[in-house]
Write a structure and sequence with these properties.
two-stranded antiparallel sheet, homodimer
Chain lengths: ~375, ~375
């Protein structure tokens, strides 16, 4: 209950929360906030907090509150605790409000985020719908934000293929925003789940739309930007995805289309991989294998590698070295993709440069790692 | 005259030619071929070669034959002598037939190749025309192959902006191919030049179209693929461009368009940079600076670096090391672009990995290098 209460007084993604939770358990933190005579915002809100109407509102719409350790908890959102702040937000959610028939943890085991402009074109809508339907057919769950434009097209594609979809909302789940999407969001709840960090009764806000974007990224193995003009929030989702090591993908379009500005920019600058269809996306985002799930309580360094890094790591010889071209060939990757993977491995000291200029196994090898929370708090999460 | 005669008996891009020219001067090689009693194809053709009608046909249309050392000779085509074979072709041309008002060497000092499908879409044609017109306005020359579709759209865009353009043809310059482009190719000759490796009287052939593509790549600082289906020859031009270190760029389009298949593939696999407009292209392909021209008789290792490699090399500290992110920031490049540049520098030993994992100046530093021809033949270019 401490996490639920805290989530009612702390704004999602508050920078200070992660710091405090590295020093204290949620129970200690709530006791300190609730018992404080300070005039800071958390204490003032805690002093007037009445959980009864919030829980009643949740009950009325069948919403449940998930916390770490629950069966349905999507553990991958905790990657947010390892990311850098984006626009002064950071950190995993204290808990998640969920409404709908699906099991969130199971649904996002193999999930792809599809996001983009509210001001989408017919081309963008059609592409989002087709990609979502094809992804669902291939066994994936489609995660989006329930907004007008690309988000709605993605949810509709998933629903059309009778597959699960997850809508991450910025406000409380007792109300549907945007109102015009009431029927759509009800369908999403029936086929999958609605998710929010905000308790029932909380309206969406600009800040909450941005912190919501980090959940879309964190709940997905990769995020696809279908269309986004130069000011779209989809850019923010891409930044979040990059900051926590999710694959960022983008859909090309006509060069004359302003709605394709951000996808083109992301691809051009190497921040996103160009994808044209669901098969391209699956190539980037392999389904979560059972081997990952097995090690879950004790994440290992190799489990944190992406598909390209794993392929390159596997291609290293157990003794001696191998040159970049040879590694690319064996890993089945392009040279740039191999170089990016090598850089990721090099910074983790999993590979090193050999005396002959080739690449060899590095100083660090497949050792268990501890998350920052474990290191700082001594807990066992 | 030995080069001209040789070019009449040797197919463009013949693998054996480069090998023989590393051991012999063109004069020695021609003497050996012409004096041979062998029955090989070169000797048989040399035995029946009559240069008079070829020279007369050239005279009749005002075509001239350029060889290395001529004022108008485009020295950058000699980069082909450093590339790897592509589809069993390789090597710089023995000479180039040129027809038209322009100075080829000067025109290609700042040239961009724009190529693509014969089976282009209205979107592709419009994009090629606009990019070509804008490039010419920015001071560049547009190089293409004079074919239907994207090639023609590119030439037309350049001509519409009253700028120079170069058409590289697969057959002799005494005839225009395709015939339907007679008026267009005449306009190209008036505003720029027509170029061919084949002597007058030689028809285009499938093989010559492929070896022609290597000249489009070699004459340009970078090549833009506007549209190309999965079987287009534009893919071949991109391969040539990569093999000799030219920038490869590609234009995105609707994901449903088969004509955008190859551009999307090239971008996705990291073989091409996405470009949406002439400004994007100029960002990749900086105009040839005067500093390169100055060192021309004695190429130095640093002169062979591309823009990104130079920027990264400049960003290295003179003492100590710098990490990849810092280098990317200072070089003004994306992380993938920086990593690709570092790999290029590392293989040339211009950078090395420091003990702390950062990058430092390598064992090799700005030493003059000799081209393979110079090394083998002892000549002084």
């Amino acid at each position: 209950m401490s996490r639920l209460a805290l989530s009612c007084v702390v704004e999602p993604g508050d920078l200070r929360l992660r710091t405090r939770l590295r020093q204290h358990t949620p129970e200690e933190l709530w006791a300190s906030v609730a018992g404080s005579s300070s005039v800071d915002a958390w204490a003032r809100r805690a002093a007037v907090l009445d959980l009864a109407p919030i829980l009643a509102a949740a009950d009325a719409v069948g919403a449940r509150f998930l916390v770490p350790g629950d069966d349905e908890w999507p553990e991958r959102v905790e990657d947010l605790d390892r990311g850098e702040p984006v626009q002064e937000s950071v950190g995993a959610p204290l808990g998640l409000w969920v409404r709908g028939a699906g099991d969130l943890g199971r649904l996002v085991g193999d999930a792809v985020g599809i996001v983009g402009s509210r001001a989408s074109t017919a081309y963008g809508d059609r592409t989002a719908t087709e990609m979502a339907a094809d992804l669902v057919t291939l066994g994936a769950t489609v995660v989006s934000g329930g907004a007008f434009g690309i988000d709605a097209a993605a949810h509709r594609g998933a629903l059309a293929a009778e597959g699960p979809t997850v809508a991450v909302l910025a406000g409380g789940l007792d109300d549907f925003y945007p109102r015009a999407h009431t029927a759509l969001l009800q369908q999403v709840a029936d086929a999958g789940v609605l998710v929010s960090e905000a308790p029932p009764g909380q309206p969406p806000s600009r800040r909450r739309f941005l912190t919501r974007n980090r959940l879309i990224a964190a709940l997905s193995a990769g995020v696809v930007i279908v269309e986004a003009n130069s000011r779209s929030g989809a850019r923010n989702t891409a930044t979040w995805a990059t900051s926590i090591g999710r694959h960022v993908m983008a859909v090309p379009g006509p060069v004359s289309s302003a709605a394709s500005y951000t996808p083109h920019r992301l691809i051009r600058e190497g921040e996103a991989t160009l994808v044209t269809c669901a098969a391209d996306i699956r190539e980037m985002v392999a389904p979560m294998g059972s081997e990952l799930a097995l090690h879950h309580s004790q994440p290992r360094l190799l489990d944190l590698l992406d598909a390209a890094e794993s392929a390159v790591y596997e291609a290293l010889p157990s003794r001696g070295s191998r040159d970049t071209g040879d590694l690319a060939l064996r890993a089945g990757l392009s040279l740039p993709a191999t170089l990016i993977a090598l850089e990721g491995l090099r910074t983790r000291q999993l590979v090193a440069v050999a005396a002959n200029g080739g690449w060899m196994l590095g100083a660090v090898q497949d050792r268990p790692v501890r998350s920052p929370q474990q290191e700082a708090g001594g807990g066992d999460g």
